[in-house]
Amino acid sequence: MADRKRKGRPGTWEGFEITRPRLPLKIAAEIDKIRDQFDDPEDALEFILGSLDRKPKMQRLKFYDFRVSATPGITGQSETGSYEERDVPLLFLKNPEKCFLARVAGDSMKDAGITNGAFIVVEAMNPLFQAPPNHSIVTAVVEGDQVVIKRYQQRQNHHELLSENSKRKYPPILISSEMSEHQSAYIFGIYQRVIPESLIDYVSF
């Protein structure tokens, strides 16, 4: 018997056309937007399939109503106990039991991908018992009540909180290398990532 030969139009096999499933443009655009938020394609696929099944894995986090300042002069109150609870895709989180949500005000961390109005995930830490990794992005309270987000840099006799905006220069914030409960500036969280607002309280397609 003669071998069966491939025939038909390009993109076919033995007479059967190889096609891709066609999705409504709205869903396709949503999938592309979600996929871009994941470093690992398998994580993106897991979230998308979970959403299609209407069972996405979500984690409820506290969302504090203060805004984390990325720019001097824009103040966020640190002593607020008011918060909402918001659902965030679990795949976005590390150590979710320690995480909370906040929102950024200002543009001094723009070059790190943290823009004005962005929602961020922060992992809470106690500065008396834990030091942030050098060069990590942290949230801190300075001057008693201003909450800021900056790049943490260890120096020999002090630590610095640095901005990242190539278009504008901001002075570093200096803090003592001796962490104590009486310090006027202290770090209370480690930045994990930005969360797109469209994925907060996300249910399904």
Provide the fold topology.
Elements: E1 12-13, E2 16-17, H1 25-35, H2 41-52, E3 58-69, E4 83-89, E5 99-105, E6 119-124, E7 137-142, E8 146-154, E9 158-162, E10 173-176, E11 186-195
Parallel strand pairs: 3-5
Antiparallel strand pairs: 1-2, 3-4, 5-6, 6-11, 7-8, 7-11, 8-9, 9-10
Q: What low-confidence regions span 5 or more consecutive residues with pLDDT below 50?
A: 4-13, 73-80
Q: What fraction of residues sit in β-strands?
A: 25-35%
Shape: globular
Largest sheet: 9 strands, mixed
Q: Measured on Cα atoms, how large is the radius of gyration?
A: 23 Å
N- and C-termini, Cα separation = 50 Å
**What percent of residues adopt helix (DSSP H or I)?**
10-25%
Helix- and strand-based class? mainly beta
Q: Provide the CATH top-level class of one domain.
A: Mainly Beta
H-E order: EEHHEEEEEEEEE
CATH topology of one domain: Umud Fragment, subunit A
* CATH superfamily membership of one domain: Umud Fragment, subunit A
Q: How many β-strands, per DSSP?
A: 11
Tally the helices: what do you get? Answer: 2
How does this model look, in words?
The chain is mostly beta strands. It has a domain at 58-199: Umud Fragment, subunit A, CATH 2.10.109.10. The chain contains 2 helices and 11 strands, in the order ββααβββββββββ. The protein has helices at residues 25-35, 41-52; strands at residues 12-13, 16-17, 58-69, 83-89, 99-105, 119-124, 137-142, 146-154, 158-162, 173-176, 186-195. The strands form 2 sheets. It has a 9-stranded mixed β-sheet, with no helix packed on it. A two-stranded antiparallel sheet has the order 1-2. The model is unreliable at 4-13 and 73-80 (pLDDT under 50).
